[in-house]
Amino acid sequence: MSIPYLNKGVAFTKEEREELGLKGFLPPKVLTLEDQAKRAYEQFQAQPDALGKNVYLTALHDRNEVLFYKLLNEHLAEMLPIVYTPTVGTAIQRYSHEYRKPRGLYLSIDDLEGMAEIFASYGVDESIDLIVATDAEGILGIGDWGVGGIAISVGKLAVYTAAAGIDPSRVLAVVLDAGTNQESLLNDPLYVGNQHSRVRGERYDQFIDQYVELARATFPNALLHWEDFGTKNARAILEKYKDRICTFNDDIQGTGAVSLAAVLACAKASKVPLKDHRIVIFGAGTAGIGIAEQIRDAIVRDGVKEEASYDQFWCIDKTGLLTDDSPDIQPFQKPYARRSDEVKDYARNGPKHSIDLLEVVKQAKPTILIGTSTVGGAFTEEIVKEMASHLERPAILPMSNPTPLSEAKPEDLIEWTEGRALVTTGSPFDPVEYNGVTYEIGQANNALVFPGLGLGTIVSKARLMTDSMFVASAEAIASMVNVGKPGAAMLPSVDQLRTVSATVAVRVAQAAIDEGVAEETPDDLIQAVQDAMWHPVYKKIKAV
Ligand SMILES: NC(=O)C1=CN([C@@H]2O[C@H](COP(=O)(O)OP(=O)(O)OC[C@H]3O[C@@H](n4cnc5c(N)ncnc54)[C@H](O)[C@@H]3O)[C@@H](O)[C@H]2O)C=CC1
Ligand SMILES: CC(=O)C(=O)O
Ligand SMILES: [Mg+2]
Question: What is the C-alpha separation between 285 and 318, in angstroms, rounded?
Answer without folding.
Answer: 10
